[in-house]
Amino acid sequence: MTKAPKTPRAALERLHESCTQAMATSFGEEREAQLAQQYVFGAELEHWLSALAGRPERALYEVAHREYFIAMLNLVQGQYRNAFKGLRLVLELHLQGILLSADPIGLSEWLRNAKDTSWAAIVDEERGVFSVRFAKAFFPALEDRTGAYRGVVRTLYKELSETTHGNISNAIQLPRSIAFSADAFRTWCEKAETLRSTVHFGLALRYLGELDGERTGLVEAMLLDRLGSVAPVRERLGGPA
Asked: What angle do CA 190, 194, 200 make, to 5 degrees?
């Protein structure tokens, strides 16, 4: 058994060394290309922030943008539980912002810390972000897509929550110490891709009908790349039917 460090500094330096070793391995082989792909999502979120300048709910998206990069840092350092927890926070913040964008009073209360985030409200079948009612209000042509995305988001949130609460996850296997894990690294990238597509869909559902030409131009290329197979989005952006 390894002897416990005698001082807080020694203990934390040992953990830091473990993070450094994990980070070196995380950038090895083909993984740096995978990280570059995930890094692109952060740049895409910056385009959304520019397109949504002046909107009060943008404050939630700004926090989500920062937290995404912190989650990536945790990933490469081998702090996988925190990395998955970060993805959950990014998901929550984006969908909460989208939901509250249609509720000025609720948004004001949330920004003043007088209202809590309710995941049940976010994924509510009748009034949530991926409800037919919400789609009818902002992008009616996407009504028939909401159910599928709601199912994906519920599953993703459940899996990420298992790592947050500390119980044994059936979907995400975590190492017992700070050290590189190829399985955890790969799984994080997979969950991040799911997060990426659902966030883009949710933002497009809410805002594409309201953005002017200049602001639409800020997100057009990435949406055609990420959601080009979704006919209503493609057509809204001037693509073929």
From this structure: 140
Asked if 159 and 171 touch (Cβ cutoff 8 Å), the reply is: yes
The distance between the two most distant Cα atoms of the chain, rounded to a whole number of Å, is: 68
Distance (Å, rounded) from C-alpha 96 to C-alpha 236? 24
201 touches 149 (CB < 8 A): yes
The answer to whether 74 and 80 have CB atoms below 8 angstroms apart is yes
Place of tokens 């799984």: 187
Q: Which residues contact 140 (CB under 8 A, 6 or more apart)?
A: none
CB 57 within 8 A of CB 203: no
Over residues 97-139, the pLDDT tens digits come to 999 999 999 999 999 999 999 999 999 999 999 999 999 999 9
Decide if 184 contacts 153 (C-beta within 8 A): no
> Mutual orientation of helices 213-227 and 182-207 as an angle, nearest 10°?
140
Helix-then-strand count for the chain, H and E: 11, 0
Name the CA dihedral angle for 165, 72, 38, 41, rounded to a multiple of 10 degrees: 90
What is the rounded CA–CA span in Å between residue 156 and residue 159?
Answer: 5
Query: CB of 121 within 8 A of CB of 127?
Result: yes
Q: Which long-range contacts (CB under 8 A, 24 or more apart) does 16-19 make?
A: 18/78, 18/177, 18/178, 18/179, 19/77, 19/78, 19/79, 19/178
In the block, tokens 């990238």 appear at 189
**For 182-237, what is each residue's pLDDT tens digit?**
999 999 999 999 999 999 999 999 999 999 999 999 999 999 999 999 999 999 99
CB atoms within 10 A of CB 42: 13
